[in-house]
Specification:
InterPro entries: Acyl_CoA_acyltransferase, C-N_Hydrolase, C-N_Hydrolase_sf, GNAT_dom, UPF0012_CS. The chain is of the alpha/beta class. It contains 14 helices and 22 strands. It has two domains: 8-205, Aminopeptidase, CATH 3.40.630; 222-488, Carbon-nitrogen hydrolase (Nitrilase/N-carbamoyl-D-aminoacid amidohydrolase).
């Protein structure tokens, strides 16, 4: 069959198609009884029309997928083909079913080689998602088994088919379409002599499925992130800084952002309100403003209905030690903290900053988020630990002075997005304040990164700012795409990890003292 002569169309099967369907089923199922009677097909079309999918070449029926709705808990266990068939060959279709059962897929032998079966399977998957069904189940014959029954047990045969050491015309196709073998079923279809009555229970899991009772309370599948590429400048007072912060929060809220993101140590210019001769005293002076900033920005989060990632600020603990801490200030009035874990040589040398000892993913009404402050993102173990807690979105507030320092953070942040199949928001500060120690130069180009696959931009960059310019920027994030890439992407980094060879474990320590 020359592909140029094909005029293929995918549509739902109709009762008028039965004469052609009978010919096709008799041809394909000549070894197990041939076609179902007209009444069976008519009833199936009436009760579940969307599940009966056909491919026609002009007006010629060349491919069909027949399906029924079933109860997942019942048919995900061992069963027989007869459990689907009632008296007078009427297929049991459960209108309240939460799973789809794949009854048959038939392709005209003259049209094989054109991947029509894959088209039908993809259509089934889309229907499963659109109907919010839990899975597609199927009892899969293994018609090649009779040729190997003398030397292989059924389970051994299935394993060798999975390893592609043996080709089975049905099981090999099912496995190539992302179905997983759940168990072996004995006596599934006794008249199937080629399979010796055996079948596999196959399942394709709908990762987007939401139980009905959870649909109304489920978290958003999309969110909008707004971030501030903040310019460091001289400020005359704390009020001046807070006024600038509120200006940006107001602007981001006007665009219905779910998050407002600020850079690392964005209020550092307040060190200019005192003498700069002692670095340690200057940074301790800055820590005196943290409680007020945290309180005021929490008020803004509630007032402007936006979750705020309050960059980071210097926090003095009850033990007198200093920490570089980011705050998640939720719009419902609750808050969380994430201390910087890895301290740069400059922070340790000039400011005597200590590293925190806790890392976690935070629940929000717009996704599960993690925070790694600047240098922390250069340690891949942290991103992976967060990914293991089902993180969707990673915030990286940063502060770098030179372009090479910025590029270290950028490249590592983009790597975290790819290897952990998540979104990463990189938010930094710009501007020069020569009169303040350690604020004399800065370089930033803030950005939002995605996994690198077909569902995302070709360069895996959703948005980025103009370098070294104060501005705000937005990105809309689709968490459904993350679920799909983790399950069905070109590569599946999280799923393919060799945990039989290596593991990653967080060592819990006692909490350091904090306010």
């Amino acid at each position: 069959m020359d592909p140029e002569d094909l005029h293929l169309n995918l549509r739902n099967l109709e009762a008028d198609d039965y004469p052609q369907l009978k010919i096709l089923m008799d041809k394909v199922y000549d070894d197990i009884g041939g076609a179902w009677p007209l009444k069976t097909i008519k009833r199936l079309i009436k009760e579940f029309p969307e599940g009966q999918i056909a491919i026609v070449d002009d007006d010629i029926l060349v491919g069909v997928a027949l399906s029924a709705l079933v109860d997942y808990d019942t048919f995900s266990e061992r069963h027989r083909y007869d459990d689907l068939i009632g008296k007078n060959e009427i297929i049991h279709n459960d209108a309240a079913g939460d799973a789809m059962y794949g009854l048959d897929v038939l392709i005209d032998p003259e049209y094989r080689g054109h991947r029509l079966g894959r088209r039908l399977y993809e259509a089934r998957k889309e229907l499963c998602r659109s109907l919010n069904l839990q899975a597609i189940l199927a009892g899969g014959r293994i018609p090649g088994y009779h040729e190997h029954a003398d030397s292989l047990k059924p389970t051994e045969y299935i394993d060798e088919v999975a390893r592609k050491e043996i080709h089975d015309p049905i099981l090999s196709f099912q496995l190539s379409n992302d179905f997983q073998v759940k168990r072996l079923m004995r006596g599934y279809l006794p008249e199937d002599k080629k399979s010796l009555g055996y079948a596999t229970l196959l399942e394709w899991n709908n990762i987007l499925y939401e139980p009905e009772e959870r649909l109304l309370e489920s978290t958003k599948t999309q969110s909008r992130v707004g971030a501030v590429q903040w310019q460091m400048r001289r400020f005359a007072s704390v009020e001046d800084v807070l006024e600038q912060v509120e200006y940006f929060v107001d602007a981001l809220s006007d665009y219905q952002s779910d998050f407002a993101v600020f850079p690392e140590l964005f209020n550092a210019p307040l060190m200019g309100l005192r003498d700069q001769s002692d670095d340690l005293e200057a940074i301790r002076f800055l820590s005196n403003f943290t409680d007020r900033f945290r309180s005021e920005m929490l008020r803004m989060a509630v007032s402007y209905n936006i979750n705020i990632i309050a960059g980071s600020m210097i926090e003095e603990g009850d033990d007198g030690r200093l920490y570089n801490v980011a705050y998640l200030l939720r719009r419902d009035g609750t808050e969380e903290r994430q201390a910087k874990l890895h301290i740069t040589p400059q922070e340790r040398r000039d400011w005597v900053i200590d590293g925190g000892e806790e890392l976690q993913v935070f629940e929000t009404d717009a996704g599960r988020v993690g925070i790694l402050i600047c240098y922390d993102v250069e340690f891949p173990e942290l991103g992976r630990i967060l990914a293991d807690q089902d993180m969707d979105l990673l915030f990286v507030p940063f502060w770098t002075d030179t372009k090479n320092g910025y590029l270290r953070v950028r490249h590592c942040a983009q790597a975290r997005a790819i290897e952990n199949e998540c979104y990463v928001v990189l938010c930094g500060s710009v501007g020069n304040v020569p009169s303040i120690e350690n604020l004399d130069i800065q370089y930033a180009q803030s950005a939002v990164f995605s996994p690198s696959d077909f569902a995302f931009p070709h360069d895996a960059v959703l948005n980025e700012t103009t370098p070294n310019t104060e501005m705000i920027f937005f990105s809309d994030l689709d968490y459904t795409r993350l679920k799909l890439v983790r399950s069905e992407g070109s590569v599946t980094n999280l799923k393919d990890r060799r945990t039989d060879l290596f593991s990653l474990k967080w060592r819990k320590k006692g909490k350091k003292s904090k306010k």
